[in-house]
Amino acid sequence: MKLICYPTSGAAPAIIPAPVERAWMEKTAGFAYRCLPLNIANAHGWMILNDAPFIAQWNGGDALDSIAINQTRTEGVRLLGGSHFGQGILTFQINGLFRTEPGYDLWVTGPVNMFKDGIQPLSAVVETDWSPFTFTMNWRFTRKFTPVLFEHDEPICMIFPLKRGLVETVEAEIRPLDEDPDTRDAYYAWARSRETFNKNLKVTDSPEQQQKWQKDYFRGVVPNAGEAPADHRTKVQLKPFKAPPESR
Question: Out of 13, 33, 55, 173, which residue is the most buried by the measure of CB atoms under 10 Å away?
Fold first, then answer.
């Protein structure tokens, strides 16, 4: 499918495929990267980057001027952040009109599994298959009189398409585990294996200590079962946005 960005003012937004790496995960000596669902989520979309670095601070009020912005560099960059709605909300102007194929929305959120002290990204779902409107990326301050730095090329927004109405077609149910004997037996086998592994992980020079962590989910295998599903994945490899063709 196609995801298209039409620049609306000057140069196109700086957009990159979201990387797996996170600064806080690097500080865990690699332990955090053992969580495959975390890795997949980290890279599950594209990131829009900040152009002009600035420091923003909120005084706790609801007025537009309750947010003070100090641009730390002005040469050759566009200030994207500003106060537009009040209510302690910092708004980034996204200089691009995004279009998806019919029936697909665009999930707009903050950089997944990244954190900033004193401010929280807001999430939105935009119908980008028909809308000729741009959207903004908004962050709400969570603490007043706390300077918040947005650096040059820091991710300020993350986007990915999703099929409209899919969640509304889901028929959610709670059922007894015994209703599905195969799933029940596989779960109990895994639970016993997990309990034994964690117990022996504390035993000096045990095989579990040598193994360090169970890799069943990472490998896509169920204990005492067959091979991984054909569509099991351990990474997401997104294509970058292509540059527009040169004018003729």
Answer: 13
- Rounded distance between C-alpha atoms, residue 117 and residue 142, angstroms: 8
Statement to judge: residues 184 and 161 lie in one domain: no
* Contact call for residues 80 and 189 (beta carbons, < 8 A): no
Domain boundary among 134, 165, 196: 165
Whose structure tokens read 């797996």? 20
CA distance 76 to 79: 10
Rounded average pLDDT over 5-34: 94
d(CA 208, CA 189): 17
> 108, 159 in Cβ contact below 8 A?
yes
Give the residue from 203, 108, 115 showing the smallest Cα distance to 162: 108
Tokens 């599905």 sit at which residue? 180
**Looking at residue 129, which CATH number applies to its domain?**
2.70.40.10
Cβ distance 110 to 139 under 8 Å? yes
How far apart are the C-alpha atoms of 96 and 9, rounded to whole Å? Answer: 8
**Would you tell me how many other CB atoms lie within 10 Å of the CB of residue 65?**
9
Model confidence pTM above 0.85: yes
Tens-place pLDDT, residues 49-101: 999 999 999 999 999 999 999 998 877 778 889 999 999 999 999 999 999 99
Q: What is the rounded CA–CA span in Å between residue 87 and residue 207?
A: 56
